From TrEMBL:
UniProt-listed SUPFAM superfamilies: Homeodomain-like, SIS domain
Protein name per UniProt: RpiR family transcriptional regulator
Keyword Endoplasmic reticulum: no
Keyword annotations: DNA-binding, Transcription, Transcription regulation
Organism from which the protein derives: Mesorhizobium kowhaii
One GO term (biological process): carbohydrate derivative metabolic process
Alphabetized Pfam families for the sequence: HTH_6 (PF01418), SIS (PF01380)
Keyword Chloroplast: no
Top-rank taxon, per record: Bacteria
Boundaries of every SIS domain copy: 125-265
GO molecular function, one term: carbohydrate derivative binding
Residue ranges of every copy of the HTH rpiR-type domain listed in the record: 1-77
Amino acid sequence: MSVLNRINAKLDGMAPGDREIGRYIVDNPDQMLRLSSAALAAEIGRSQSSVVKFSQKLGYASYQELKLAVSEAKAQEWQVPAGVIHGSIEVGDSYQVILKKLIGSKLLSIQRTVAANSERIISRTLELLDVARRIHLVGVGASSLVARDFSYKLMKLGRNVLHDSDSHIQMANVSTLGPGDVLFALSYSGASIETLRIAELASKRGTTVIAVTGLHDNPLSRVADICLYTIADEERARSSSITARDAQLTLTDLLFILLVQKQPDANEYVHNSEVAVSVLKAERSS
């Protein structure tokens, strides 16, 4: 994924000095590309060695390698569609401006989320879901809504799925899981206590834990066997969980579509589901 997205996602967990360097790079990538390590250090009042060490902590051998990565990220930068504004929603914004900013935030979150997850990790997740004996979906708040939506989709394919919005019932269900089962846990913060405790119990029972969480280091990501990452734009959207939910739905919808492609009798299952529901719709309209 883009080094700028990676730095931005890790800012909150950085030491103050590193955070200052990272914030400058994220906010001023074009200027950074024109500065030497010494010049960047002078610009933000840090030492040259701290800039070089910052580069190395990100996995680059030198500051020059970091500059090259930032240059490549800028070249591939997603362009906001015409008529869409990407910026923080303010109290005095008009209806049209709010609409354009909201759309911009949603699109950017989805694009960054897709970029943050490699095809290899998506394919591995798909394999685990495909062969799972049982799939337990867990999440609280808005993440619970995404978990429920994904559970309905998986049920359409005939998968053995467990989901309940009550965390006590979720914990009881997880106590029955074991090797061969999958826990699919959603939490953008990765710190939701209910989701974390359920994931810890699942892991102790030998269940494969797949986490859909933020890119920052968090407790859930440390418990999980596999992490899918979501990148939200909540600060700009100014409303809790809006873009985090969109990012989660993007990943679960992608996994569902890939499972449909992979499962030979998927279309038959989906058709049978549609026929069953159509009977109820016909009775309601009569």
